[in-house]
Amino acid sequence: MYRKLSHLLFSLCALYGASAQAAVILQYHHVSKTLPKVTSVEADTFRAHLQYLQQHEFKVVALDTLLNGLQQGQAFDDKTVAITFDDGYDNNIEQAAPILAEFGYPYTIFVNPALIDEQKGYVMTWAELKELSKQGALIANHSSRHDYLHHRLEGESEEQWRSRIKADLTHAEKRIEEEIGYSLKYLAYPYGEFDKALQEVVKELGYTGIGQHSGAMGPGNDFTRLPRFPASGFYADLDTLATKLESLPFALANIDYSDTVTAELRPMVTLEFAEKGFHNKQFACYVSGQGQAEIKWLDGKRVTVQAKQDLKPGRARYNCTAPSLHKSGRYLWFSQPWVITQDETNRGNSQ
């Protein structure tokens, strides 16, 4: 009886400990009212997001503080947030930086060094990035030129592809270190797209890979495919963003699927839970553009998730949620991203 009680208490502590190490990463691109709405948020809306974080007592931390802490087993408040921007657009320094300074919030900008070196007019200069870095912003890798990194060139062998991608990422990282003075080895995948081979390259280089599929994160996440919640365009609405900010990660022991980039039109993912903090009957998954997915429980801790209809070529997601048993009013959240290709011969295309 004593041993059973001890095991129960240990399990409950593990569950509460996992939720106490939850965090959310927000992703932005433009802060502008004139650029494409799908990747933009207006300054007033962006300020409203930050006001919400402040008023609801979220802890906004630097990305390196969060990632290093989670990897080292550090406990964070389960209302912890990191703020990121992709591409290094000039409106980040013109519009976003002054608003962030008002709140004293740290943030990270993922940049494409080759585009900066070519002095493209829509991205910040190295001098501007240095200034933001002095003010506390982190500057990190978004690949050299924002290419589809998983795309194999025509006639390119797997080894040639690996060599090309390693050269691309290490060159970008070197330029950041030369100009800014440090190397974080964080990679935000361009377009949020990656496959298993790219994850392996990222791991071999000792980098952390960050996507743009939604979800909360914790110490059990795969650090070659960390989730972020997009907060621009359609996703900028505070009514829905508020729920996402409160989300918690599922305690997953394993995620099994063929590959993220796939010619399968109804790809399947099998989730195995290390601990259960929800009721099976409340677990639901949704397919982008379709509605609910087909789910089948294999046993108490393993479930398969699959689209009921064929997915169209391009990016898609399965988003899975369930009400948390231990945090009233909050949801566990997991997202599986896909890139559906036309067929195996053009694997990697994402038109």
From TrEMBL:
GO molecular function: hydrolase activity
Tree of life domain: Bacteria
Ranges that cross the membrane: none
InterPro entries attached to this UniProt entry: Glyco_hydro/deAcase_b/a-brl (IPR011330), NODB_dom (IPR002509), Polysacch_Deacetylase (IPR051398)
Location in the cell: Secreted
Signal peptide coordinates: 1-22
Domain NodB homology: 79-281
EC number in record: 3.-.-.-
Keywords on record: Hydrolase, Signal
Primary location class: secreted
Keyword Hydrolase annotated: yes
Name the UniProt record assigns to this protein: Polysaccharide deacetylase family protein
Species name: Pseudoalteromonas qingdaonensis
